[in-house]
Amino acid sequence: MIGQEGTLSPNEADAPTQVCLTVDTQALWAAGWRPGQPMPDQSGVLHISGDAAMAQTLSTLAKHWRPDLEDLLAQKIGDIAARQVMRGVQGLFGASKRSTSRLAENMAEYATHETQALPTMAQFIVGASQQTTLTQRLARLDERLAKLEGRVNQVAGSRSS
Q1: All residues at 6 or more sequence positions from 31 whose CB lies less than 8 Å from its CB, including other chains
Q2: Residue range 86-109: average pLDDT?
Q3: Structural domain boundaries in the chain
């Protein structure tokens, strides 16, 4: 029911109505709507029936309706508590937005600067080839060193006898 001052309230069961507004809250939340945002244009969220002219006017108003959650909450828990709750919620949303923004900036900076430290595929293949060559050369040097140690031991053994 729309009161004289333009406030919206539930209708009495036996009161006559010119227009009936039905909001599917599950569809509303599923459409991504959050408090303070305009109603989504998705069909099935808001159903209006009754007097056509009044229904059209209410449909236009409903699309741009942004409920004052603080006022609704104040009716339940009081003005000061509602204000504190809303400021806390706004602070959480603000912190979440800032954290998300900083994370995106840091990831962009990392992608820009750190990718230069990573080798390209061609550089990786060249590096792997060089590693294989060096590993083979090291194996040959180990063999030569083992032969030299054998000769040194052989010479040292023949001198001591």
Answers
A1: 40, 42, 45
A2: 92
A3: 19-67, 71-115
